[in-house]
Amino acid sequence: MSKFAFRKHVTSLGNPGELQPLLFMLFLVIYLVTVTGNLLIIVLVVADQHLHSPMYFFLGNLSCLETCYSTTILPKMLTTLFTGDRTITVSCCLTQYFFFGCCIAIETFLLAAMSYDRYLAICRPLFYASIMNRKFCFQLMAGAWINGLIVNSIVVFLLAQLSFCGSNIIDHYICDLTPLEKLTCRDPTLFKLIVLLLSFIFTIPPFLLTFSSYICIIGSIITIQSTIGRQKAFSTCSSHLMVVCLFYGTLIIVYMFRDTPTMKHLSKIFSIFYTILTPLANPLIYTLRNKEVHKSLRQILMKCSRALRKYP
User: Fold this and answer.
1) Has this prediction a pTM greater than 0.70?
2) How far is it, in rounded angstroms, from Cα 312 to Cα 309?
3) What is the 3-state secondary structure (H, E, C) of 121-164?
4) What's a Gene Ontology MF term here (predicted)?
5) Contact 41, 115 (CB under 8 A)
6) Nearest-CA neighbor of 30 among 60, 71, 61?
7) CATH number, domain at 263?
8) Quick one: pLDDT at residue 258?
9) How many domains is the chain partitioned into structurally?
10) More exposed terminus of the chain, fewer Cβ within 10 Å: N or C?
11) Residue 174 DSSP symbol
């Protein structure tokens, strides 16, 4: 088998002839805004020395990851909407899943690192500077990216060893693991067990670290006596908490409840939500709720404005 075809696509949400041009423009705008927003955050973090702190170092990495997310999924979706061709080669499908799966795995580790950073800042402020130094930040980031790449490389390698025969129709909008499993000729039980084991080893620990960090953070915030102090402490982690809830909330719906009758079709819609809309929402969440990012953005815009005035 050399090619797959998507049974589902965003055009199946209604009349393809009527919706295709509209959806193409919609997803093109989403892609451009997502890439622009995330690249803007990366530029701000690199250019502004006031943002050279662990929290913004992690935020810059998250923005880089979200850009990869969108670039993995949306260009193929836009091509399909523009040409109407729903086919994709097996190698391209596996490549798309490789990068898509890597992004998910890396983000679980990255969110855990960001949660630990906020935990130290709020619950252990006296030890924050000594623990969260530049070397440790780079080690956390390297660990997140390396672990994410390793775990999904193993999964894709094992998936590529399976034979695909019979139907070549992918019952999804994107190349995801579950619909690909259903197209294999061999019994995928062993493959599923290995994937489950890898998921448990590489996903549960960062999830537990993220969850326990926020339990401690919320507990510490509650014990703060002054209202202003509580508001200030909560404001430093509220944006990240929203991102964590958005990421894990959609993942749970898509992957844990996908086989229930009610969620079988809704999970596909939610998969679009967390692969396309979450990367769009994250820069908006951080920029709209972060005063330091606002200040840095204003300074950059003022510098650009002054530079343009010099060259009429």
Assistant:
1) yes
2) 6
3) HHHCHHHHHHHCCHHHHHHHHHHHHHHHHHHHHHHHHHHHHCCE
4) G protein-coupled receptor activity
5) no
6) 71
7) 1.20.1070.10
8) 60
9) 1
10) C
11) S
